[in-house]
Amino acid sequence: MIYGSGPAGLMAASVLSRSGVPVTLFERRPSYGRKLLIAGSSGLNVSHHTELEDFISHYRGWSPGVWRSFFKVLSPLDWIHFIQSLGLETFVGTSDRYFVKEMKASGLLRAWRSKLESQGVRFVANHEWSGFEGTVSGSVTGLFLGGGSWEDTAPLWPTALERAGVRVNGFQAANVGYEVAWSEAFLAEAEGKPLKNIVFKNNNGEKAGELVVTRYGLEGTPVYFLGKPGGAVLDLKPSMSEGEILERLRSVRENLSPMRRVKRLLALPDASLALLFHHSPESVRGNLEGLVRQIKGFPVELIRPRPLIEAISSTGGVDLSEVSLESGHELELKKLPGVFVGGEMLDWWAPTGGFLIQAAVTQGAVAGKSMLRRLTGSA
Ligand SMILES: Cc1cc2nc3c(=O)[nH]c(=O)nc-3n(C[C@H](O)[C@H](O)[C@H](O)COP(=O)(O)OP(=O)(O)OC[C@H]3O[C@@H](n4cnc5c(N)ncnc54)[C@H](O)[C@@H]3O)c2cc1C
């Protein structure tokens, strides 16, 4: 029995059913793969095109060696070939992200479900796993119940697992936007617009990329990677040093204000110009050197992360110390033999960029393989 119709549960069902094991897949909601469909609403980014060692370096939780052993079972390329075997086209888009060509998840979900049904998988909706009461002893169960983000009702499973003695850590928002106190005048010009080609820096590190200005603050990969409450700075023109910018701005003989020079000579996006204009003191805007320092280190105060319900993913969930990595028992709960877990319900972290779905399907494959071994003695 498998619970959860996200990518992890569907992949575990694929592994079992293609070996002829009868599978019933239960889902607590009335329809299947909800978060995959949500992920697809902004372009379904299913994996990342990079060297395996670089790929692995994006994950936290287990050691690189453990992630490496998982990706031996289902590598990023295996996953892309699997998608293609369902009749869907994929491509590598900007920032080396793999997408399905139709960008949405509905086609993938439909094709995957129909393939599973052809392999004998029975789908049962509106059926929530809430504990082991009534479970036949000796049976094999797969729990692929997802993380804490984007959930309107709190899932029951953490309490049920804790009752069975399994350590479950509280969910926290990950890959989430941050609140910033923008002025109305700035928002009127910049809301919804990108701060392109910036470098975000705080004491977690620095990350190049793009941020989007929202009414409440900032969204985007650099903040998802490094965001934490407190001070940060933005380099709005990372391709040039302070000296180079000054030289360029001084190269015009006309009598222009410092802001006009910036606008004419630096090719900054509209949102960056609006930021300089509306969120710099007038004394800085009127002074060329001060303005250049502001361009290279624009101070931003991140107030707090947006709530869990808006986060792309979560940390927290089943503590990794509860999960076996022993050969043949990978992803089995140590305290509950016969119960296998995988996906975002476990306490690991990855950034956006396809790493989340990839980890979910890979863990679904690893757990599916262990379940198969337990059921049939081979995998
Ligand atoms: C807005 C948004 C955009 C995203 N974009 C991307 C992206 O572009 N690329 C990427 O890699 N990732 C993305 N993600 C993350 C990705 O969707 C998740 O990491 C992935 O779906 C996790 O898969 P999973 O199978 O572990 O869990 P889920 O997909 O969450 O599936 C778990 C399933 O289990 C069901 N369930 C829960 N409890 C029970 C129970 N007790 N009994 C039965 N069923 C239960 C749930 O209803 C759910 O259907 C995005 C997420 C969001 C919210």
Question: Could you describe the 3D structure shown?
Answer:
Helix 1 (7-17) runs parallel beside helix 15, helix 8 (184-190) packs antiparallel against helix 12 (270-278) and helix 10 packs across helix 14. The mean pLDDT is 95. The longest helix is centred in the last third of the chain and has 22 residues, at 355-376. The protein has 15 helices and 16 strands. With 379 residues, the protein is an alpha/beta fold. It has two domains: 2-174 and 308-376, 3-Layer(bba) Sandwich (FAD/NAD(P)-binding domain), CATH 3.50.50.60; 178-302, no CATH class. Strands 9-12-11-10-13-14 form a six-stranded antiparallel beta sheet. It has a five-stranded parallel beta sheet with strand order 6-2-1-7-16, with helices on one face. A three-stranded antiparallel beta sheet has the order 3-5-4. It is elongated and about 85 Å long. 36% of the residues lie in helices and 19% in strands. Flavin-adenine dinucleotide (FAD) binds next to helix 1, helix 2 and helix 15.
